[in-house]
UniProtKB/TrEMBL annotation:
Keywords: Kinase, Thiamine biosynthesis, Transferase. Pfam families: Phos_pyr_kin. The keyword Cytoplasm does not apply. It comes from the Bacteria. The keyword Transferase applies. This is Hydroxymethylpyrimidine/phosphomethylpyrimidine kinase. GO terms for molecular function: hydroxymethylpyrimidine kinase activity; phosphomethylpyrimidine kinase activity. Its EC number is 2.7.1.49, 2.7.4.7. It comes from Allobacillus halotolerans.
Length: 269
């Protein structure tokens, strides 16, 4: 049996809905072998982020080397990287191991408002990490910060996606979860063609970790050898299924249901 290996380089969410925990659950559900490099530990639940504790830089590099020198990976994603030092070290190691199928989820601010990336780290993201990427998956506020543009219309989104490809990304998916239109449109751009991936907006406040889950699903599919556009379509389907059925955990913005994609048809637990 050929095992598809998938690696996440991200922050830990003690509540299990986002970050490393969402990534590993997604890898497992999509039949990829999950590995993790923890960049920061957050004390977090459905009510918010209560503390952020970055891992010392040498601890992060040692984790990457542990994978690089022995196990390798077929695809990787980055999530919460917190500082420019961490971004630069992670970029250097990805380059060193010549890893491809690199998914960059430019996590900046948690849904509750806590900062998961320091302001001055955006330049490091643009200069060192985006040029290594197979796909970058910003939500609209993140795309606004990366491109220094206001994004209101679909044309604005397209121009921002073009900017990100010009920064060195092979492709971009600009996620449309933030908004109030009846449909959610995730805009995919591979440097040549735009594809608007549209689905009905689900009326729920339980979207904690949707971006992490989405980028992890792309990573799992790439690890299995699926081409990028199809990987993004499957990831959208996986995330939609996860949002559709509530788990009812916690008092705030609850986690999504990572079992739902495989168990589709079962409407409640
Ligand atoms: N209310 C919703 N209904 C349907 N799909 C959603 C909803 N919110 C987010 N999504 C989907 O979840 C994925 C993550 O999007 P988004 O929430 O914008 O990312 P982030 O968590 O990074 O802010 C996208 O595929 C988006 O279409
Ligand atoms: C450790 C960690 N990483 C990422 C997110 C973003 O989560 P969301 O997908 O809800 O924006 C988070 N809340 N915590």
């Amino acid at each position: 049996m050929v095992i598809a290996k998938a690696l996440t380089i991200a922050g830990s969410d003690s509540g299990g809905g986002a970050g490393i925990q969402a990534d590993l659950k997604t890898f497992q559900e999509l039949d990829a072998y999950g590995m993790s490099i923890i960049t920061a530990v957050t004390a977090q639940n459905t009510l918010g982020v209560h503390g952020v504790y970055p891992i010392p830089l040498n601890g992060i590099v040692e984790q990457i080397d542990a994978i690089g020198k022995d196990m390798g990976t077929n695809a990787l994603k980055t999530g919460m990287l917190f500082s420019s030092e961490i971004i630069e070290a992670v970029s250097e190691r990805i380059h060193h191991y010549q890893w491809d199928n690199v998914v960059i989820d430019p996590v900046m601010i948690a849904k509750g408002g806590a900062k998961l990336l320091q302001d001055e780290a955006v330049n490091a993201l643009i200069d060192t990490l985006i040029p290594l990427s197979t796909v970058v998956t910003p939500n609209i506020p993140e795309a606004e910060i990366i491109t220094d543009r206001k994004i209101k219309t679909m044309d604005d989104r397209k121009r921002a996606a073009q900017d990100i490809v010009r920064m060195g990304a092979t492709s971009v998916v600009m996620k449309g979860g933030h908004g109030s239109e009846d449909d959610v449109v995730d805009l995919f751009f591979d440097g040549e063609t735009f594809v608007e991936m549209t689905s009905p907006r689900i009326d729920t406040r339980h979207t904690h970790g949707t971006g992490c889950t989405f980028s992890a699903a792309i990573t799992a599919e790439l690890a299995k050898g699926v081409e990028i556009k199809q990987a993004v379509l499957t990831a959208k389907d996986f995330t939609r299924a996860a949002i559709e059925t509530e788990l009812g955990i916690g008092e705030g913005h609850g986690p999504t249901n990572h079992w739902a994609y495989k168990k589709r048809g079962v409407k409640s637990f």
